[in-house]
Amino acid sequence: MSKLGDITKLIRSKNAGPFLITFDVLFEDTATYTRVRDSGALTAETFARMYRTPIGDVEFSTYEAGLAIKATIPRKISSGDIGDPDIYGGQLYGPLVDIEIP
Amino acid sequence: MAVSTSPKRGAKLDEVRTIAPSGAIGAGFDEAAFWNMMERERPQFIGCDSGSTDPGPFALGSGTSHWGRIAYKRDLRIMMAAALKYDVPLLIGSAGTAGADPNLAWLRDIALEIAREDGHHFKLALIHAEQDRDYLKRRLREGRIKPLKPVMEISEELIDRCAHIVGMMGIEPFLAALEGGAQVVLAGRASDTSIFSAIPIREGLPPGLVWHAAKVLECGGASAVRTTAAGLDGMFARITKDYIEFEPVNPLLECSPVSVAAHTLYENRSPSALVEPSGTLDVSDAVYEAVNDRVVRVRGSRFIPAADYTIKLEGAEQIGYQTFVIGGIRDPGILRQFDSWLAEVKERAARRVNDIFSGNAPEYQVNFRVYGRDGVLGDMEPVNRLEGHEACVLIEAVAPAQDQASAIVHAYAHIALHHPIPQWSGLITTLAYPYAPSSIERGAIYRFNLNHVVLPDNPLEMFPIEFADV
Asked: Is residue B189 a contact partner of residue B87, using CB atoms and an 8 Å limit?
């Protein structure tokens, strides 16, 4: 087992416009990218559960040329609206860092 | 290296070289590196994005810029000097963060001030992106305003409520400004990529390569391999009929095939598709190769023209006035029973507010942000318990008027400041205030309220252009 944050080059989150948050998980090499992609530990369901988002609202994709796994979810509160905790959406990736990858 | 014809005149170009000095005017860049690249490659135009919705709805709602004027002026001064020295166009998109009329006027005034101080003379174009409400209402009645996902409501009443509404222009208004003879083009809200796509598309270069280059350029050096040796800085691109090449302007930065490939992910919902007014960039077949340890060459990007030309709208409405108080807690006893302590505070404070307004309180919202528990993720935090030896509490109130918001937040904060826990007998003071006054009035606050596109009759009708001889 490894923690996702220990085997990735970069994990980040950011607004994709004011109404969506997008997460990027980037890898250093194809072997690790393939290992995580095929592990079943980082899937659309993972994002749905972790960010309490209906599975139908999670756009999940893998992108081999960029050695990247990506997910986009709708914001519950639009950027900057009352109660929004993160205007840029830049720190929402935090819980992903500690995901255990077999 | 031969100095090429400026794209303002002459025959079509086989290659277009362009430079984005920075990912955003006001964010700064290394001046020496920029001039070196200008001299070495002689880019045929300079482009820079000036806007974003990232900083939230305030810039659009209030018509003010996110970056400070001094930083903005420094960056713009260098870009203007280079454009005039090398006699090439300077294209700036999304003026003053939001690109509404007050943002554009703010940027125009800075440009005119620089021109006066530095003795520059040029033809200026201002492209407006602020939208006429009657025009939008007519398009709405015609069924030519469509929702994007996530779907939000729109009505004529909502259009009237907006403080400002902008349309996000494509390449056509930039080309019309250049056609009119402008050398410095200051545009209101524009798609970030249109700034860099306009001239290469006009020159007949392949749209897939052009839009891909533009997507990388609009963030300046953000697609370089990350390093602490330099800031984000700028990006140079060479766009040809067969490929594009990227090279970071700052010699301390490098592009790698993976760093460039990964950039299409950034701030974009899909890894391989990027939607523009006139179509979609598809990079799923793009091939990335290293030319050397700093330069990356890309081929194979495609552009799929859209059936309908669409202009995305952005709107912001005022939702009230806000005041907040910030304080810290270090008492282990309070921290151990924080949630029940806070619930008691909220209950007592709600009654106090009712008393202050003699039972006739305005509609208001109070929000507690508890850093150390779930301040960063809010409702999405999976570890929503308080851990650690201290916590930060931010109490904010929103009400129809500033004095109401301030009265409400002080009621909450004062009750919290002295609310007891059972361990202690006698008066305690629970919040460490770092500021006097403890409350900070934030003024009017706003909400983004449009996620729609307009189907115009033509790409120019929403974007009037003004010319001026400076």
From this structure: no
